[in-house]
Structure formats: C-alpha cells, structure tokens
Specification:
four-stranded antiparallel β-sheet; Immunoglobulin-like; 2 domains; 32% strand; alpha+beta; seven-stranded antiparallel β-sheet
C-alpha cells in the first residue's frame, strides 16, 4: 500500500511532471534553433565539433526519459489509489466487524461487542463511555481467557436509553497479582461509504473512519420482521 500519498499530492505531482515536459519541449526547440543557426553560419574550414551538440542531445534524451518515468509512476500511483477505493466499495451497506474500541451506535436495538482476554482474570469489567469521556455503562465481564461477546442494548447503567452516537468500550481485566491483562475489542457497524486519507483507504462507519486493514469480516445486515413486512408490503391477495 502506498503511504503518505493523497489525491491532492498526486494531482500536484502530475501537474509538476506535465510542466517539466512542456519546459523540456521549449528548451529543446530553442536548442534546435540555436544549433541550426550555428550550422548555417559555421566556418567551412573550421566546422563545429559534433561531439558537443551530440552530448547535448544525449542529455535532452536522458531528461525526457526521466520525465516519462515520473509520468508512468504517477499513473501507477493513481491506479493503485483508484483500485483501493474500488475494492473497498464492496463494504458499503454491509455490517462490518473491525478491531476498535469505538462503537458506532445507531440509537436503536442492540450491538454486539466481541472482546478477548489473553489470560484468565480474577476481575474483569466492561465500561462504555460517551463522546465526552463520561462513563454511561459499567458491568461485569467474563474472566476466562479467550473470545467473549457482550450485547449492549444501548442503555446506561440505570436503564436509560442512550442516543445515537460514538461510544468507547473498555475492558478492564486484572489477574490475581492485580496486573492488567491485555485485551482486544472487536465491534460492528454499518459501512456507509469509503474514503482515502494519506493513501490509506478507510470505511466510514457512523462518524468514524475505520482502516480497511482493521476489518475482520463483513456480512449482509440482518433484516427484522418489521422491515421484511415493509419491504414485502401488505397482503398481495387481490380483493374482489
């Protein structure tokens, strides 16, 4: 993957390469005019040394090859950037599971939070924070090592429904020596679009940009019975 390259920097590079090509063409035209004038006015008894203008022609050729190489590289970079976005478009509309501590909660239903503990814990809690870093939910988490799933219904510890937005989940697990255990969280969210930043392709989930490399899998979102009835419409049996 190309790092540190944006569409803007690529456009600037392409513009610079095009400018160099135009400048080289103008310089070469001036050189030919000067060479022709010199040849027309040279002393027949002491002609110009052909090695001098041959060397100059070689230099022009080398510069032209370098500009052509830059142009081809610009085209390759543009192609890779385009392919990155094109490939990521397949995630749009899907429910993606990705490595992150941020939850894109849509304000309704429940969202699954997968987390793993590197080793068994004596104490483990799951904490969910809002965008202001205020804790909204806290509860006990699994203590055995391995992968676990917690389904958050979008309510705070007191049972109040939380609004749509971005939340942060933290798994605080400690062993018998009160040493914190390494944990990894995987959350889900509907992908609504893709974009590129500094040459990296991201999936847009809620208000967050998730690096494509952090997506573990994606699937069609589940359709509940209400949505199925809405899509299917009312009873199609004709009335008499």
């Amino acid at each position: 993957m190309i790092e540190g390259i944006t569409n803007t920097s690529l456009a600037n590079s392409q513009q610079e390469t095009a400018g160099q090509s135009v400048s080289l063409g103008e310089d070469f035209s001036d050189f030919l005019t000067l060479l022709t004038t010199q040849l027309q006015n040279q002393d027949p008894l002491a002609p110009l040394d052909s090695n001098q203008f041959t060397e100059q022609l070689v230099r022009f050729s080398q510069v032209e090859q370098a500009i052509n190489t830059n142009s081809k590289l610009d085209n390759l970079v543009a192609l890779q950037l385009s392919n990155g976005v094109t490939g990521a478009l397949g995630y749009v509309g899907l429910e993606a599971s990705y490595i992150s501590a941020e939850i894109a909660y849509d304000g309704s239903g429940a969202t699954d939070i997968n987390y793993s503990l590197d080793s068994a814990a004596s104490l483990s809690r799951i904490n969910i924070y809002d965008e202001n870093s205020q804790i909204v939910y806290t509860g006990e988490a699994e203590t055995s090592s391995g992968v676990h799933t917690f389904s958050w219904d979008g309510r705070d510890t007191n049972g109040n429904q939380m609004p749509e937005g971005t939340y942060v989940v933290s798994i605080d697990a400690f062993d018998n020596d009160n040493t914190q255990i390494e944990t990894t969280t995987v959350v889900k969210g509907r992908v609504r679009g893709v974009e590129q930043q500094d040459g990296v392709t991201y999936a847009l989930v809620g208000d967050r940009a998730v690096a494509i490399s952090n997506i573990l899998n994606a699937s069609e979102p589940e359709v509940d019975a209400t949505e199925e009835e809405t899509e299917g419409g009312a009873d199609d049996t004709p009335t008499v």
